[in-house]
Design brief:
Length: 349
């Protein structure tokens, strides 16, 4: 056990003691907002404390509940939200735990915003959470490993969420092609998709069916950054590109980690040819993290990138110049972001 561990254990004991004293003196009646942040030093032995705090504070009338832990082994006690305790919750933010709601719990009808980060659940469990959330306006899912991404998950898009306005989906799991959707997200205005996947066969053009289900969508941010591009390149198969139907509300499209993948080029060309309201298109190649900067007269260089990544970035730029730039209407502002030329020397294709 090092000095840092000892300090963290002492902080954790002090935190548990103070919170325990405060909440045990409180009846729980009248609590509107509860935030528990133990993300820096939560351990498995703290679960009994967290359970007791939630039992005290999560009562009918609570409107905001935030629980930030650091271990997915903690199982959020969903039963606490039954018997009316969850019906008033408008904002639910869970981090670093498992969440296993079931269809037998008809609660959370007042939800307007849900944020789940590093939370374990399945598509069916997400469906159980949201099936009665008709007021939901904002949904943020980040690094939720068990979720099937870009079915996004498929269960999510089968639900009726008529008031959803912003959806932010970030998953590290496998991708499957987006299915034709039966639901309509009439008020969804901003969609952010950041799949973190090891599957390279995804057909990006299948996202057109998702956009078709979002007639009010104005902003789409798609982050497809991956170090290894194994999809069919537009230069390998330059045959006719697929087309989709027209859209009239989209104003801003941003694609991060742009490559020469044919389906990605097809999707981008679709936006230029079929989205009549498009104003801004940003295509950004794979970038170093961190990037170079000047601070206090000190220059920090970009983190090195593998040569294969730089070569694919160059192919992506060539695909933009060859297939995309000629189709950019005069009213659309195209912004192309290359890898840092100062830190990454030009490579041959």
């Amino acid at each position: 056990m090092n000095k840092k561990t000892c300090v963290n254990d002492e902080i954790a004991r002090d935190f548990r003691s103070k919170v325990d004293q405060i909440l045990k003196k409180h009846s729980g009646i009248g609590v509107k907002k509860l935030t528990i942040n133990m993300s820096q030093y939560y351990t498995a032995k703290d679960s009994c404390y967290v359970n007791s705090w939630l039992l005290i504070a999560v009562t009918p009338g609570i409107e905001e509940l935030t629980l930030q832990l650091s271990m997915e082994e903690y199982n959020f006690p969903c039963s606490l939200l039954s018997n009316g305790s969850g019906e008033s919750i408008r904002y639910l933010h869970l981090c670093g735990c498992s969440f296993r709601p079931t269809a037998e719990l008809p609660w959370l009808k007042s939800l307007t915003k849900v944020r789940l980060h590093a939370v374990c659940f399945t598509g069916d469990e997400l469906g159980s959470l949201l099936c009665n959330s008709f007021a939901l306006e904002r949904l943020v899912l980040t690094h939720c490993d068990e979720m099937v991404c870009l079915k996004i998950p498929c269960m999510l898009w089968r639900l009726s969420l008529p008031n959803l306005k912003i959806a932010n989906i970030n998953s590290r799991n496998e991708m499957a092609n987006t299915p034709v959707l039966r639901s309509k997200f009439l008020h969804l205005k901003k969609l952010i998709i950041r799949p973190r996947t090891t599957t390279f066969s995804y057909d990006y053009f299948s996202l057109v069916s998702l956009i078709d289900a979002c007639p009010s969508l104005e902003t789409l941010i798609l982050d497809v950054s991956q170090e290894k591009m194994e999809q069919v390149s537009i230069f390998t198969d330059p045959s006719d590109l697929r087309k989709g139907q027209q859209h009239h509300k989209m104003k801003r499209v941003k694609i991060l980690g742009f490559t020469s993948a044919k389906s990605l080029v097809e999707l981008t060309c679709h936006f230029l040819e079929s989205v009549t309201s498009l104003e801004y298109l940003t295509l950004e190649s794979y970038q170093s993290i961190p990037r170079c900067s000047m601070r206090a007269n000190k220059c920090r260089k970009c983190f090195p990138l593998p040569i294969d990544v730089l070569r694919e970035a160059q192919r992506g730029l060539l695909a933009i110049r060859t297939y995309i730039e000629p189709k950019v209407p005069s009213m659309v502002k195209l912004r192309v972001v290359e890898p840092c030329r100062r830190c990454h020397a030009a490579v041959e294709l």
